[in-house]
From TrEMBL, chain B:
GO terms for cellular component: plasma membrane. It comes from Prochlorococcus marinus str. MIT 9116. It is an enzyme of class 7 (translocase). Its main location: membrane. This is proton-translocating NAD(P)(+) transhydrogenase. Keywords: Cell inner membrane, Cell membrane, Membrane, NAD, NADP, Oxidoreductase, Translocase, Transmembrane, Transmembrane helix. Residues 7-91 form the NAD(P) transhydrogenase alpha subunit C-terminal domain. The transhydrogenation between NADH and NADP is coupled to respiration and ATP hydrolysis and functions as a proton pump across the membrane. It is a multi-pass membrane protein.
Length: 479, 97
């Protein structure tokens, strides 16, 4: 072993260690931010390791440097700009876009190697080795293409650029996807047999397969799909690692692939859906969207913050339903102050956490934990649902679809079957909301029309601040 | 590296991933997904290798460069976005105890 090889080995080892520590550190609130930076550092370290290895062995041509710099600057610049500019609310689609580009990168590497085989000087032709090479190229292309088109479709659907076409809800889609899958299998074997031109067939059919599988899936299930595609992009990276013979790529890719699978499972569990039903069950929002989705509200009651405070004052049990709107308004600390006052007055306060509150699992728990809400007050949906009939007041803050009674009552509703919080069972429901806009699913919320529901319009943070003032005036929470 | 040892690397890497994530509380899954996504942009190393080994083959250089751009878009954007999310989660200085 000569020096550059040893240096690269040490750096690679260090990078793997740091990446693993980074993923592990992301599991604790306290260390998460540092861990993320650690992982970023490990990634840059791996680049330094690779470049110094080539500098020390074969050298890097000027021409190569130019193309490296062009690619790096353009990619990093766009990535950084998008990451800074994108609103917090569209996080799922942003992750989807990034993820798709990772898949595209693996695909291009494999394609490049397949079309222009890298001249390998020292080794002589080895059948076994060339077979492995072809298999890893095919896998990299197949998984990379599915990741790319799947992620782009997921992003477009979340952004609302793409709706769910009617035909994708019929059984035909399974047939179409099977055709794509079989065609990619044929292209795969054809490629291994040495027919290089079938690589284009593989690219096209696996891209179509990615579209065909993702298109029928509804917006509410998208986070699960993105998580799964994230896992795929790890697999694609590992396959690319086989293509260019890099252990570091294989380890990192495998870690991400395994991590993505676990995450996907957890998300499915949280939404009470199985992965199979997400992938093959079709969209929640089927054709009926038109009938029940765009209906007009007929019986909206709106009330002032003062009325809300008066009702809260005489309550015995209050349940808070926080949603994404709360997170966007950064109102969790203000909310905590309100609940402190209520508690001091002997009112029982509980937070009802829907599994996908905040659109992704765990989002809400973190926000509330940071605002010093005691962990015992955070109740999971199944635990809290039987409590609603005995509850005096429910405060819905920035949540919408997860409290829509349609999901239980209206079998024609696109939301039907989704687990929801039964807030309408409570005596009084206050919905704090900026306006009458629809929720994430774009579906009308029947809750708002119910006689025991009152809307308090305004920004969550402002309303809560006003509420603190009103409660103070009423003497709530004064000792 | 022989193919067999690469397979070992794959196996051990997968087990490591399962083990690492298995211990993460559900509360941090969103930033974790985003962070892991950024790490999957490690294919930038493959793209770099491609460019270095292209030896003046211009189409290959271009493919490698585009691939590198996509990968870095994923990596840089992914880490920045994760950082932004985690910043949103983290305590404000005034609330620190």
């Amino acid at each position: 072993m000569n020096l550059p090889v040893i240096i690269k080995f040490v750096i690679d080892l260090l990078a793997v260690l740091l990446l693993a520590l980074g993923i592990k550190g992301l599991s604790k609130v306290k260390s998460a931010r540092d861990a993320n930076r650690l992982a970023a550092f490990a990634m840059s370290l791996s680049v330094v390791g690779l470049l110094s290895y080539y500098l020390g062995t074969s050298g890097i041509a000027i021409q190569s440097w130019i193309w490296i710099i062009i690619g790096s600057i353009i990619g990093s610049l766009f990535g950084a700009i998008l990451a800074k500019k994108v609103p917090m609310t569209s996080m799922p689609e942003t992750v989807a876009l990034f993820n798709g580009c990772g898949g595209m990168s693996s695909l291009l590497v494999a394609l490049g190697v397949a079309i222009f085989p890298i001249p390998s000087g020292q080794e002589n032709f080895d059948f076994f080795k060339s077979l492995i090479n072809e298999v890893s190229i095919s896998v990299s292309i197949f998984v990379g293409a599915i990741t790319f088109t799947g992620s782009i479709v997921a992003m477009a659907k979340l952004q609302g650029w793409l709706s769910t076409p009617g035909w994708t809800q019929s059984k035909v889609r399974h047939f179409v996807n099977i055709v794509f899958a079989v065609a990619s299998l044929i292209a795969f074997f054809d490629l291994i047999n040495g027919n290089t031109s079938s690589i284009w067939l593989l690219v096209i059919v696996s891209s179509l397969l990615g579209i065909g599988v993702t298109l029928p899936i509804g917006g509410a299930d998208m986070p699960v799909v993105i998580s799964l595609l994230n896992s795929y992009s790890g697999i694609a990276a590992a396959a690319a690692g086989f293509v260019v013979d890099s252990q570091l790529l294989i380890v990192a890719g495998a870690m991400v692939g395994a991590a993505g699978l676990i995450l996907t499972q957890v998300m499915c569990k949280g939404m009470n859906r199985s992965l199979v039903s997400v992938l093959f069950g079709g969209s929640l929002s089927t054709q009926s969207t038109a009938s029940s989705g765009s209906g007009e509200y007929t019986n909206i009651t709106s009330c002032s913050v003062e009325e809300c405070a008066l009702t809260l004052e005489v309550a015995n049990k209050v349940i808070i339903v926080p949603g994404y709107g709360l997170a966007v308004a950064q109102a969790q600390h203000t909310l905590r102050e309100v609940t402190k006052k209520l508690e001091q007055n002997g009112i029982e306060v509980v937070y009802a956490i829907h599994p996908v509150a905040g659109r992704m699992p765990g989002h809400m728990n973190v926000l509330l934990a940071e605002a010093d809400v005691p962990y015992e007050q955070l109740k999971e949906m199944d635990v809290v649902n039987p409590d609603f009939p005995a509850t005096d007041v429910v405060l819905v803050l920035g949540a919408n679809d997860v409290v829509n009674p349609q999901a239980k009552n209206d079998s024609s509703s696109p939301l039907y079957g989704m687990p929801v919080l039964d807030v309408q069972e409570a005596r009084t429901v206050f919905v704090i909301k900026r306006g009458m806009s629809a929720g994430y699913s774009g579906i009308k919320n029947d809750l708002f029309d119910l006689p025991n529901t009152s809307m308090v319009f305004g920004d969550a943070k402002k309303v809560l601040n006003d509420l603190i003032g009103e409660l103070k005036d009423l003497g709530v929470g004064e000792k | 590296m022989s193919f067999i040892s690469l397979l070992w690397v794959l196996l051990l890497g997968s087990l490591l991933g399962l083990e690492l994530i298995g211990k993460v509380p559900p509360t941090l899954h969103t930033p974790l997904m985003s962070g892991a996504n950024a790490i999957s942009g490690i294919t930038m190393l493959a793209a770099l290798t491609l460019i270095v080994k292209a030896e003046g083959n211009v189409p290959l250089l271009i493919i490698g460069s585009v691939s590198l751009g996509f990968a870095l878009f994923n990596v840089v954007g992914g880490f920045f976005v994760t950082d932004r999310m985690l910043a949103m989660f983290s305590r404000k200085p005034s609330n620190k105890k």
